[in-house]
Amino acid sequence: MLFALSVVVALHYYLWRKLVRATTRPGTRGRRLGSVAVIGAAVLLLGTFFGTRFLPHSVDRVLAWPGYLWMAVMFYLVVFLIVAEVPTLVARRWLARQARTAPMPAAVAASGGLPATAGSGVATAEPGFTTAEPGSTTEPGPTTESDLVTAEDRAVLESRRLFLARGVAITAGLVAGGVTASGVGTALGPPQLKRVQIPLARLPRAADGLRVALVSDIHLGPLRGIGHTRRIVDMINGLDADIVAIVGDLVDGSVAELGPAAGPLRELRARHGSYFVTGNHEYFSGYEEWITEVSSLGVAPLRNERVQLPNGVYLAGVNDVVGEAYGDAPDFDAAMADRDPTRPVVLLAHQPVQAYEAAKRGADLQLSGHTHGGQIWPFTYIVKATGQPVVSGLGTVDGMPVYVTNGAGFWGPPVRVGAPPDISLVELRSIQ
């Protein structure tokens, strides 16, 4: 919690320096209003973060839309401004050099480097002169030509600096707003349908063409409800799949809050049944209640266990790695021991990183989610850096194929950039 608070404060301070302090003059109304706006945005984001844990669902829904949208805009503002740091610095130095080398104003040059006085017959203190105090032994004299030019340089440079800073701020706002708006349209739109064929060496010919409708990261919560579930169920039922596999992160909230939103799952249709494994968000949301609820909807949880399908294929499932902190750890041995070694095992596991343990135990294929494909570019690279061996699509881990869906929903900002939501139809092919 302290880390999140520190990050939010640091990011908003950076935005204040770039968007408010750099674009306004001290003491102006614009600076005061901008400062209040940045502070308010930070408070909103913190309220959104902690509201999901401590506030009633109805209140959380009010905070979620503006709070998570601001999170996305803030992220792209920071990214753009960081990228713009070097060209902005180069531009400022060029403008400073231009100001220093600008020709002297004609009026100053004509007076030999001294400013012309206004009026006649009366000596007045003009810019560029100093006036002696009564009794002073200091003779009044003109400021040097270099002093005068430097003062003018400063005024010109400040004007140009403000122009540059405001241009960068406006561009950053337009880019961040445009990318976020496009990402909202992608995230709230229908999931894409991805089709992939995966050959398995041990898949019997009787199981050739086995079709698995894979969906993950539906994330029912304050921003997505029953309409989201119905659309997903309708898409899956239209695939005529043999198996439906929901590989975790179904919900962000309790059964009391989101039970009705999950209700359409009872309408899922598949020849060999629908199955579910826990994701990390189930543990944050009360996993025991959700396991019972999912079972009541006709979706069978696979909790460190496997089932044998009629065509000679094992379908296994393990709990998410986060379950270890809740006394519900994944157990690959329980899921895969004492099986017929001639038959293939398709393993459902929420996180791709679990593939290392699955490969050690001879699984033929792992189906996963969790990564959202990065969800918001460039988080794809950050997800990869956290140790997930496959971020999106088909890859291999220690010779075992691993397929990772982007997921059908989103977490946090209702935004997807470079990683559209999807439902995948995985078709297994025999090479015997």
Per-chain topology:
Blueprint: H1 2-20, H2 29-54, H3 57-83, H4 85-100, H5 106-110, H6 145-188, E1 192-200, E2 210-215, H7 226-237, E3 243-247, H8 255-262, E4 274-277, H9 280-284, H10 287-296, E5 300-301, E6 305-308, E7 314-317, H11 332-336, E8 345-348, H12 355-360, E9 365-368, H13 379-385, E10 393-397, E11 400-404, E12 422-430
Uncertain stretches of 5 or more adjacent residues = 107-141, 143-148
Mean pLDDT rating: 88
Global outline = elongated
Instruction: Give the structural class.
Output: alpha/beta
Total helices: the number is 13
Q: How do the SSEs run, as a string of H and E?
A: HHHHHHEEHEHEHHEEEHEHEHEEE
Give the beta-strand count: 12
Summarize the structure.
By secondary structure, this protein is α/β, with parallel strands linked by helices. 44% of the residues lie in helices and 14% in strands.
Can you walk through the features of this model?
This protein is α/β, with parallel strands linked by helices and 432 residues long. Helix content is 44%, strand content 14%. The protein has helices at 2-20, 29-54, 57-83, 85-100, 106-110, 145-188, 226-237, 255-262, 280-284, 287-296, 332-336, 355-360, 379-385; strands at 192-200, 210-215, 243-247, 274-277, 300-301, 305-308, 314-317, 345-348, 365-368, 393-397, 400-404, 422-430. The strands form two sheets. The chain has a six-stranded mixed sheet. A six-stranded mixed sheet has the order 6-7-8-9-11-10. Helix 11 (332-336) links the parallel strand 7 (314-317) and strand 8. 37% of the residues are buried. The model is unreliable at 107-141 and 143-148 (pLDDT under 50).
